[in-house]
């Protein structure tokens, strides 16, 4: 077997693994609006809202994995379903608008456009979509097949988690000019009690605060990471089985974490079997449960 053939087989295996993780695992969408209200995806039901009093309210929506907030309302007048992959959760003209995506991680940038990671083999690109439906490619790269999370920083740069190396997930920065750089690499510990169908280093959702600090849901290691702009990685939350974090959001110095209860192997593809909860990490490091969904 030639070296080229070996490389192709390794990439094929990683792609198969990531595809399995995306289909078998629950959603990672969690966002906080300017009022401190929390919204998160429930791939067994739709979307939930937690108000500032802690009341949990169901919002009818598709059972998609990914969601973003359009704080200014650039897509507030869009159709309920638009493009090939997108759904507006909130009522038309409502601001902020909540936008979901069926197939890919997405974010609304401060320039008023959606940026999403087309992870299909053979495409592997970051797409810019304007409110009037025009799409263009920001940047292409083979590694984009393995993106599992996308976020935006205050300067408009995009940040991604990607698993082209299954043993060491990478957090990368992508500028609006298309420059790609590595912020940090995370290697999970193999002795962690792993969630089903995952690997120790597997990371999903991420968020960036006003200082450029990145928070990452390290699903495979059941933890939340804090990464400084200089690339220093620390663990700020270590969850234990049967819970695993999949998404994070930051608001006023508080980190909100979307976690899911493990399921048995026979229920891996049964979306209603997954149970979500939201916890928060205070500035003092104190961890508090905000809400848990009951079936």
Topology readout:
Elements: H1 3-24, E1 30-32, E2 38-42, E3 46-50, E4 56-59, E5 66-70, E6 81-82, E7 86-88, E8 97-101, E9 106-108, E10 114-118, E11 125-129, E12 135-140, E13 147-152, E14 158-162, E15 169-174, E16 180-186, E17 206-208, E18 214-218, E19 223-227, E20 233-238, E21 243-251, E22 254-261, E23 275-281, E24 287-292
Antiparallel strand pairs: 1-2, 2-3, 3-4, 5-8, 6-7, 7-8, 9-10, 10-11, 11-12, 13-14, 14-15, 15-16, 17-18, 18-19, 19-20, 21-22, 22-23, 23-24
Would you identify the CATH architecture of one domain? Beta Barrel
- Structural class estimated from helices and strands: mainly beta
- How many strand units? 24
CATH fold name of one domain, please?
Thrombin, subunit H
Tell me the Rg in angstroms: 18 Å
Terminal-residue CA separation? 51 Å
What is the class of one domain in the CATH system? Mainly Beta
> How can the largest sheet be summarized?
4 strands, antiparallel
Succession of helices and strands:
HEEEEEEEEEEEEEEEEEEEEEEEE
Tell me the helix content: under 10%
**Shape verdict:** globular
Number of helices: 1
Mean pLDDT: 90
**What is the spatial order of strands in the main beta sheet?**
1-2-3-4
Return residue spans where pLDDT drops below 50 for at least 5 consecutive residues. 3-23
